[in-house]
Structures are given as structure tokens and as C-alpha cells.
Specification:
69% helix; elongated
Amino acid sequence: MQDVISENAPRPPQQKRSRAAMERILQAAQTLIAERGTSGLTLADVAERAGVSVGSIYSRFSGKEALIAATQEQWLGHVTAYQRTLYADAAARSDDFEDFVTSHLTAMTAAFRRDADLIREFAVRAIGQSGTSDTARRRLQDAFDQACDAILAHPGRPPYVSRVRVSLALRAVQATLEWRVTTPTADAPDNDWDLLAAELPNLALSYLRKAPS
């Protein structure tokens, strides 16, 4: 079922120059959200960063919340596209299932580390948030499903490693990474990216390699 177009949906640009301006607006909004968070975002700052007028933004979006929603959806679309390539490359590099899972989760940790500010603002805050669009929720689920599918598709996967087991292992890893991006290091001394990159694959594999009794 297609999403119902709301009054907050961006008005699609028709000309090449207009599309370029839209892209600059969304990129400027994404950069500023990473720097200041959604609460610190202003349309005036976005306009200045993008090199457009505030009126140009209002000609495309009904307001700040609509711009944030469109920026979130675009970023999530880029995340899922990036993951698709990343997981395909990881599978091509390793015929060994455990090596692949390790590479897979190390890459997942690196992605959380690189995009921590945006993940904190977009992905984690979206969970249970009434203002999050159906498209954003679907893309979050798509990103998780891609991660599961990549592991399940590996030719070396033991037959007892089911989708349920893969999903539970990845949920545990994801929850830990979400905890990392939302918890100040001062409040959690073990909140260290290098440690997580080394230990999270071990956590998942300790569960996945154990055959059901």
C-alpha cells in the first residue's frame, strides 16, 4: 500500500536547477543535524548553508518538521543502498561463515561509529516516535532485514543458524550500538568503539555457533 501524501511532504522539484537546490537543502540539513541535533536546527541556518533563501525552503517544505522528515528519509535511503554494497563485498571476500559474520558486524560497528550523530537523531529517536513517517520506519526495517539476509545467504551458514537466531544476534548487537551512540562515555567507561568492534562479533558468534540441543 502506498503512503498517503501528507501536507508535510516535500513538493518535488521539476527542473534540474530546482532539483540541485533541493539536494543542497537536504544535504545542508543533514550536516547541521549531525552538528547540532534536530532541536538546534533552524531554517535560516539551512538556507545559509545551502545557498538559498528561506522562502525557497518554504516553497518546498511546510516547515522545519517536514524538512527534518525528508532529510531523515533521504539519509535512510542512502544507508540501505550503502549496506547492500557493503554486505555483497564482505560476502565476496570470505568463504568462511564466521569470518564473514565478523567482517559483517565489524562493518556495522564502523557505520554506527561514522554516523553516530545522525543515528542518534534519526534512527534511535524514530523508534516509537509518532511523528516518524511510514517510509522512514520501513527503511529502518529494510536496513535490518538486509543485515539478516546477508548472513542467511552465506553459503557457509550452518543449517541450524535460522532467521530467528540471526535476528536475535543482530538485535543484541544493534541494541548495544544504539546504547553506545546515546550514552556519554563519561557515564559508561566501557563505552569504547574499538572494544565494541572487537567484542560484538564474538558475542554474536558465541550464540550462533551453538547448535540447538
